[in-house]
Amino acid sequence: MTRSTLLSCAALAVALLPATPVWAGDLVPPVGNSRDTGEVAPVSAVASATPSAPGSTGEIVVTGRRLDTARDSIAPALGASDYSFSRATLDKQPGGANLSLAATLLQAPGVTQDSYGAVHVRNEHGNLQYRLNGIIVPESISGFGATFDQRIASSIDLLTGTLPAQYGYRTSGVINLKTQSGAFANGGEIGVYGGSRGTIQPSASIHGSEGHFNYFASGSYLQNDIGVENPTASNNAIHDQTKQYRGFVYLSDILSESSRISAFGGTSIGRFQIPNVPGQSPAFTVNGVSDFDSAKLDLNQREVTHYGVLAYQYAGENLNFQVAPFVRYSQTRFTPDPNNGDIIFNGFADAARLSSLAAGVQADGSTKVGASHTVRFGLFFQNERTRTAVTSRVLPVDEDGNPLVGMAPFSIADRGGRNGQLYGAYLQDEWSVTPKLTINYGARFDIVRAYTREQQLSPRVNMVWVPTNAVTLHAGYARNFTPPPQELIGAPTLALFNGTTKASEITTADPVRAEREHYFDAGIEIHPARGLKLGLDSYYKLKRNLLDEGQFGSALVLSPFNYAKGYAWGIELSGNYTRGPFDVYANVAHGQEKGKNINSSQYFFAPDELAKVSNRYIFTDHSQDWTASGGASVTIRNGPGTLVPTASFIYGSGLRKDDPNPLTAIPNGGKLPAYFTMNVGIAQNFTGPGPLKGMTLRVDVANLFDKSYLIRDGSGVGVGAPQYGARRGIFAGLSKKF
After folding, report:
1. Quick check: is 509 in a domain?
2. Which residue, among 561, 599, 669, has the nearest Cα to 126 in the 3D structure?
3. Residue 73, by phi and psi: left (phi above 0), alpha (psi -120 to 50) or beta?
4. Which of the 8 DSSP states describes residue 440?
5. For residue 661, with 0-12 CB atoms within 10 Å meaning exposed, 13-18 middle and 19 or more buried, which class applies?
6. Which pLDDT band holds residue 152 (cuts at 50, 70, 90)?
7. Is residue 100 domain-resident?
8. Looking at residue 653, what DSSP letter applies?
9. Rounded CA separation 266/307 (Å)
10. How far is CA 372 from its chain centroid?
11. Which of 79-83, 550-554, 662-666, 697-701 has the lowest average pLDDT?
């Protein structure tokens, strides 16, 4: 394939569905919690690799690595917690790269499992930012966890804690997927994975280079019968098939030893059946029909996300910057039951279409000022256009709210749209006070102009002290500003539904506001023995207009609301041992989040629920007291190559539910039962000569002990339906590198 052909195909792909690829070439340290001190290998050190002939592949590799190091130095963690998953770690976990990104993140400290593939970092709902090579990719309507195929990543980093000033908007965690951007050896990989519940997951990738030009493309397909969590405790859900497609393209051209241009983009298309709960009791009569088998409901949802980035990077002697325009389109469509089943059970049925087009630019830079200071600065702008179109079929009601006998359902159309902007700028200084003490201080200023019009100046400061090579201490403070997710705000016209079965008991609809937070964090990391790393981290957050989200309808789309006041605290302990063939890690976290007085989107709630929350702190529905995870693997060299047995587990003390005491009935006053699940697997990698070279054969068992456990029970503030964790599943896969 010629370079011109590749460029033409790639340009078309990026224009249609901009994406972001990663190739599993460079390995980073195994999974572990590390404190970023801000120290980055000098560019000159990377560039001084073994000399190569001008224009040779070796020279391109050296230049590519030099540019990677320079790019990473623009936005290091600088005192925040950085939990890293290397390519080797991703491949060693049960399921390998076939796992979802959410399943991998559950192995990090303080990450809690929730329904619909969501995760919570440090007991916050959402508030996660996704980056590719350090560049923000705007959130999709359905959440970004399912958009990325993690097989494209050379490493995945989860940053938490008091983030430095370059990180804004979503601050409970920053998930950065790094793609390899040096010279790609020509090759690729093809594989298939499948097993229980009709799972089949073929995938393929190709990568290569021609001179200074590098390319990577990846695609995968997933089909199974558990696209959404089972709402019953049975082994198999009813009406729960999913088909998902993901693609990714990465292009890079090294223009000179100090500059590079890259383009990457991706697409994710998912079709989901909404699972059914049999035995539900009908509540309404539609066209004379008052009986309907709830197991035969036919609700469906389609989710589409396309994203793309074009990045120019310059790395000079002192000045280092990257400018990256980006675009993202997201759409979600929900279709109700064609036989009026929704109306018979709920009194109304919604056909909904939500779309969002976001475009903007991110610019980051750094420069050395003397021997002790590195100044970093940046700008961010995003314009987002959101549209909602909901057609509701409803029944008329009398003055007492009772459906009128013999009346047929009729349709009400509610359409809306909003154009909103985010503006941001930051300036900060990394000051090396002594060789052992670094202070990073600065501030960012952010403006949101959408459903709310607010702004905030947010100071940040982090201190990292390394008294010995085996001990690192840190402490930090961050003022955070989190605008509400515009793509999730529908702002319905409530008056349209007066006199119908969809009328709200409460017509108050105060706008969703930006969350404002004071965040304190401190901890220690020690290396008591070779290969062993232990970390302890604690945090406290004080919030105003705490943002939360809930499911308030049949569609699997969450809607935001605020608590006027809130707070969260927690402590995390992590350990990681890597030596020789052994990799072992374990994490445990304890914490909680509480809020008081719902002060926006009140129409989602019942009057008594609002009254009980108005004057007392309650647990947020996603707050979990105890969370733990861990795993181990061993690499055994044998005749064909390496045999890798592996295991991992997660533990949760249970999310919140309604208070079981009817006398108090405090919202979110109860707790679901604790659960423990373990996954195991074994993989044989063929590395020797012969036709099997590059092949990997794996077998995995998810939920080894076949535990039935509730993630949600359908009760609690903003919780729409029960969800159970998946029962035991047996899977096998075969892949071949070429």
Report:
1. no
2. 561
3. alpha
4. E
5. exposed
6. confident
7. yes
8. -
9. 5
10. 36
11. 550-554
Closest CA to 103 of 698, 710, 703, 709: 703
What stretch of H or E contains 686?
strand 675-686
Tokens 């050379």 correspond to: 154
Distance, CA of 319 to CA of 335 (rounded, Å): 52
How far apart are alpha carbons 337 and 282 in whole angstroms?
A: 14
Is residue 318 classed exposed, middle or buried when 0-12, 13-18 and 19+ CB atoms within 10 A define those classes? Answer: exposed
Range of the domain at 45: 3-502+516-690+705-737
Displacement of CA 362 from its chain's centroid (Å): 20
> Would you state the structure tokens that stand for residue 686, as one six-digit string?
């063929």
Task: Give a three-class secondary structure readout of 612-630.
Answer: HHHCCCEECCCCCCEEEEE
Contact 28, 269 (CB under 8 A): no
DSSP-assigned beta bridge partners for residue 396: 500
* pLDDT(15) > 70: no
Residues whose CB is less than 8 angstroms from the CB of residue 153 and which lie 6 or more positions away in sequence, other chains included: 22, 24, 87, 90, 177, 178, 179
How is residue 396 annotated by DSSP? B
| Contact present, 707 and 169 (Cβ < 8 Å) | no
Where in 225-258 does DSSP place strands (E)?
242-256
- Number of folded domains that form the chain: 1
Q: For residue 633, give both structure tokens.
A: 């693997």
Where would I find the beta strands (DSSP E) of 395-470?
A: 410-434, 437-449, 453-468
Query: Over the Cα atoms of the chain, what is R_g?
Result: 26
Structure tokens at 21: 């690829």
Residue written as tokens 């540019």? 67
What CATH number corresponds to the domain at position 629? 2.40.170.20
Closest residue by Cα to residue 86 from 71, 107, 57: 107
Q: Does 605 map to a domain?
A: yes
The dihedrals phi and psi of 498, each to the nearest 5 degrees, come to -60, 135
pLDDT score recorded for residue 35: 52
CA–CA separation, 266 vs 250, rounded Å?
9
Residue 510 lies in a domain: no
pLDDT tens, residue by residue, 644-669:
999 999 999 999 999 998 888 899 99
Q: What is the end-to-end Cα distance of the chain in Å, rounded?
A: 16
CA dihedral (525, 33, 460, 446) in degrees, to 10, reads -170
Q: Which residue shows structure tokens 């009569």? A: 285
Of 37-46, 132-141, 193-202, 265-274, minimum mean pLDDT range: 37-46
d(CA 93, CA 88): 9
Other C-beta atoms lying within 10 Å of the C-beta of residue 499: 14
Kindly report the number of other CB atoms within 10 A of residue 475's CB atom.
Answer: 16
Residues in the chain: 738
Distances (CA, A) of 216 to 23, 206, 245, 482, 622: 7, 6, 17, 34, 38
Q: How many CA atoms lie within 13 A of 190 on its CB side?
A: 2
- Please report where in the chains the tokens 């090294």 appear, as a residue: 254
Is the CB of residue 440 less than 8 Å from the CB of residue 474?
A: no
Q: pLDDT category, 452, cuts 50, 70, 90?
A: very high
Percentage of the chain beyond pLDDT 70 is 91
Return the structure tokens found at 503.
């009328």
